[in-house]
Amino acid sequence: MNTALLISFAIILVIAAALLKRTKANSRVGGISKRHVLTPREQAMYFRLVEALNGHVVLGQVAFSAMIKAKSRATRNRFDRKVADFVILNKAFEVLAVVELDDASHKNRETQDRERQALLTNAGYRVIRYSNVPNVEQVHKDFHMTEIGPRAIGRGNITQAL
């Protein structure tokens, strides 16, 4: 009986040590874990953009640093950790527009949104904002699309709040 008790105790100690080691390993790297790239609402928006902008490239969660460059570190620090919800490209991978979905995460962040938008428009990008996932017709209208195909979509300082 003592042998069975000792073996059980040894097994419990080994399991506890393994769990403790795993917990310490996670705390050393900041408790890193995976998460969804897009929220359910952003996923719906992604699929709506893909459906409506057939023939264009739709990218989600694009770092501003992939679209904007600056010579000074101080200017780069203004955008180096910012991410656009969606970027729409033509087949030559030229940016046609940046699309922002103003969901619950944007609530009470109007000042930050204006600053983000100013960075993009000052760099020459068109920013289109939606408060909800639009229907296909609205996307076509906003991107100047006809039934035949896209008309020229400029890169001007055009901003739409919908």
Descriptive tags:
5 strands, alpha/beta, 5 helices, 162 residues, single chain, disordered C terminus, elongated, five-stranded mixed sheet
Cα end-to-end separation: 75 Å
Number of domains: 2
Count the beta strands.
Answer: 5
Order of helix and strand elements from N to C terminus:
HHEHEEHEHE
Cα Rg: 24 Å
Helix percent band: 40-55%
The shape is elongated
Please, what is the average pLDDT? 82
Strand residues, percent: 15-25%
How would you characterize the overall build of this protein?
There is one protein chain. By secondary structure, this protein is an alpha/beta fold. The chain has two domains: 1-33; 40-161. The chain is 40% helix and 17% strand. It is built from five helices and five strands, in the order H-H-E-H-E-E-H-E-H-E. It has helices at 2-28, 40-52, 73-77, 110-122, 136-142, and strands at residues 57-63, 83-89, 95-101, 127-130, 159-161. It has a five-stranded mixed beta sheet with strand order 1-2-3-4-5. Helix 2 packs across helix 5. The longest helix has 27 residues, at 2-28. The model is unreliable at 147-162 (pLDDT under 50).
Structure, briefly:
The protein is α/β, with parallel strands linked by helices and 162 residues long.
Q: Which secondary structure elements does this structure contain, and how are they paired or packed?
A:
Elements: H1 2-28, H2 40-52, E1 57-63, H3 73-77, E2 83-89, E3 95-101, H4 110-122, E4 127-130, H5 136-142, E5 159-161
Parallel strand pairs: 3-4, 4-5
Antiparallel strand pairs: 1-2, 2-3
Helix pairs in contact: 2-5
